[in-house]
Structure formats: C-alpha cells, structure tokens
Amino acid sequence: MSSMANVTGTYSVYNATELFVIRTAFWLLAAVNVVANVLMIMTLLRTKRTVFLIILTGLCFSDLLSACNSPLFVKIILEARNFKLPRFTCGLATTVEVGTSIVTVFQVLALTLFRFNTVVRSVPAKRQMSTHTCAHVIVSLWIVSLLLISPYPIAIRVSETDTGFKCGMKKNAPLLAKGMVALGVTAGIFLPTLIIVGLCITIVLFLLGRKLPATTPSADKLRRQMEKKAVKQLVIVVVSFLVAYTVDCGAKNFMFLKRDGQVSDHTTLTLALVAHGVLRISECLNPFLYYYGSMEIRRGMKKLLCGRSSSSETTIGNK
C-alpha cells in the first residue's frame, strides 16, 4: 500500500504528489468532456433533425451532466476520510452519478432497438417513428430515470467513523426507498444492458447467417447501404458504452465482493477511480466518435466553428 500522508489535514491513502496527479487528470477530463459535449450539442441543435441525431443529443446531455458532477464525485472518493463539504453533497453526487448512468443506458437501448428494426426487420426509420415522436421518447426516458433515482436522497446516509467515511444505505431507510434503489439499479442499468448485448448479438448473427444473392437488385443494394450505415452508427455508440460500463461494473462488483477487509484501502479507492475514469474517458471520446460517424455532424460542426454554410446536406441518420 502507498504510504499514508496527511495532506492539508486530510487522511489519505495517497501522498501529495499522487493526489495532485489524480485531481489534475480528472479536472482535465471534466473540462474536455464539457467543451466537447457543449460543442456537439450546439451542432446537433443546429443540424437537421433525424431520429439518430435526436438520440445523440440526449446522450450528449447526460454525458455533460455527468462531467459537471465528476469533480464532486472524485472529491468524495479522495476525501473519504475527512470529507468537508456539506453532508447533502454526498447524496447529490451519488444520485447524479447513478441517474446519468440510468438515462444513458435507456437511450443506448432506444438506439439499439431503432437500429435492430432497421437491420433485422428491414423497417425504414421513417416508418418506425417520426422525429417528433423520438423527441417525446427521449424526454420520457429522462422522466423515468428521475423517478427511479428519486429515493436515493432518502436512502443514502453519510457514515463517519474512526476508520472512514462513505455513502451507504440507511439501515432505517424506508423499505419502499430501499426497494426503489434496488429497482433503479436493476431495471435501469443491468437489465437494459443485457437487452442491448442480446440485440447486438442477434444483429451480428443475422448479418453473418444471411446469404447474399449472386446479383443484387438496385432496391436490395439500397437496403444494404442503409444497413451498413445503421450498423456503423450502432457500433460507434454501443462499443464505447459497453467497454466503459463493463469495466465500471467489473470494478464495482469486485469491490462489493471484497468489501470485508480483504483488499486494502489503496486498492479499493484505486478501483473506484479507475471505474469512474473509464466512464469519463468514454464520454470524452463519444463526441469525436459521433463526429466520425455522421456526415451531417461533420458539416454542422464545420459550419458552427467556421461560420460557413455547408453544401447540400445528405440525411444519413434516418436512412
């Protein structure tokens, strides 16, 4: 274990140099995350609406909110022994962290279902839902996510002892609040993620098992092009999501299984920082992946940054 040092009176498993490096890294991640997602949101709001781009807008908003919450959440992890901010901030940071995770999972699931219908069922985007309906669906997902995290401020407590500080479940919390917290994690994160994985596997098996005709008619060729764009957009969003959340869930599950003193404080906090950092890195990369995956976004970004009118736009999000 790293030597423990008193840093500005705070008990820590990291020395002063390690704390400086960790804080600087996460502040830089948060800054890049905010700038990248703000630029992407401005671009998407100025770009012609498609179902795909509307879902990306919702994802950027959740990533932006998570980035703004990141410094507070990291402060809770680093100052676990002597947290000096008001008590409510512990519950606030945890609630926002879980809430943004839930709404992100919901929106990725919506995109996966959308592209599943395009690839496997060959349903054109315009026949699945209108952009107006898609906007209502995204707003509804945010509302459901808020409902799922509403019990967190009631159920979370600040535990201060001689050996540590942490956010945990109140032993005397209302049973309904405890049940809603468990439901929020299960129904809001784990189950939708399993559905996303299942749908992606089905798409892969469908594409691998399909026999292409020797001569492709023009209509069939157009459908193949739409499938290719749909799969490309799905890969850009889902792969980044699955990698980040797999690492995050793996680290948290390890900490949960080894919580009875079987691992050191240094290992526990390092795993928490790694899990949080992987999610933030993924959110930083997402706007760049969106930029790569859509011609409309590239044109919109150039127009936003350079003030130039883009040439004739090709709608790829709904094809």
Describe the structure.
A hairpin with a 2-residue loop joins strand 1 and strand 2 (10-12). The protein is mainly α and 319 residues long. Helices cover 73% and strands 5% of the residues. It has a two-stranded antiparallel ribbon with strand order 1-2. The longest helix is centred in the C-terminal third of the chain and has 40 residues, at 218-257. It has helices at residues 16-46, 51-78, 88-119, 125-128, 131-149, 152-155, 175-209, 218-257, 265-293, 295-306, and strands at residues 5-7, 10-12, 156-160, 165-169. It has a single domain, classed as Rhopdopsin 7-helix transmembrane proteins, CATH 1.20.1070. It has ten helices and four strands, in the order ββααααααββαααα.
